[in-house]
Amino acid sequence: MERAAWHDEVVDDRALIDAVLAGDRDLFRVLVEREQVTVYRTCLRILGRPHDAEDATQESFVIAYRSLGSFRGEGPLGGWLLRIAIRQAYRRLGQRRETSELKQEMSIGAPGSDPLAVTLAGERERAVRLAVAALSDPYREVVALRFFGELSLNEIAVATRRPLNTVKTHLRRGLERLRPLIGNEPVQ
Amino acid sequence: MNRRPFEPNELDKPSADADRAITELERYATATGTATPRGLEDRVMAALDREPPPRHGLLAWLLPSAGAGGGLSRAARLGALGATLVLAMAGALFAGQLTGIIHNVGNGSPTPIASQSEFSAPSPSESVAEPATPSPSISPETSSSGSPDGSEDANQAPGASDAPQEASEQGGEATAHETGERSPVPGS
Fold it and tell me: Is B67 close to A63, i.e. CB distance below 8 A?
């Protein structure tokens, strides 16, 4: 059942892409409407700031639009788009570090009334973000696709064109490398 | 929006370190499940209005936008492009040589005989000289034997004294050798 739905989505994606490539730019809005929540949420989980996440989301869609002709249609368009978004968000995060803009951030989760709790929650979230960002590829990409983008392992395998077992191994190794990074992150 | 919680069977094998990291990541993902900001879709579409139409086909494959993963790496694409150029140059050189040979054979001038001799060994200078000074002692040797000695003579003859056309043929041959040596490089 899930497989059939996935197949339909791929077929729809192909038709959508062909129409956009043929010059119907407005049809790209369908893709933006469908994927903006996932892309924005993923960017926000990587960057930690709503404003940066908005910018990264916009950049990701623009890059996807420019590169639409290179999409080979081997899986859902959403997975391809998420890979672009993750790459773009980490690029932006790297630029932020270079310009020393990575200052203390407030929690992007549920707001609380207790300032200390909000600060502690923000630190904890920041520790997770930085720990994942410190991973090397392919571990970082797999962890981000699974936990920030919330793709299934099958979807990740298709999007990255890697065997499912390889994806599982990358995920486990990434998580094992993540553990000390999260645990050792100092709370300021 | 429904989250996709992590299942224990998603890893290739159990790992205590991975489990701890999963707990942190799940907590983070649950806390940061936020909605998209208002107007994001219009903002993206407005940005797309400034974009030229996306590239198609081979051009899109060879020149993807920065950040758009997809398909081969940049190095692989450049390698493929280089190999294509080398093959095109080799093809053009070969076609040029072939045209020259055909042209020379068609003319029936002394020069084509020299060029023919590169393939069939008998000495061109001697066979050209044959009608002018019919010397029975020379012509039977050259026509019947076609020995390595005769072919060496044939190769030496044009290089030393003959027209630029032959020099250009030699040049063409050298280039063909060069391309023959270069061709494995892009593939490696």
Answer: yes
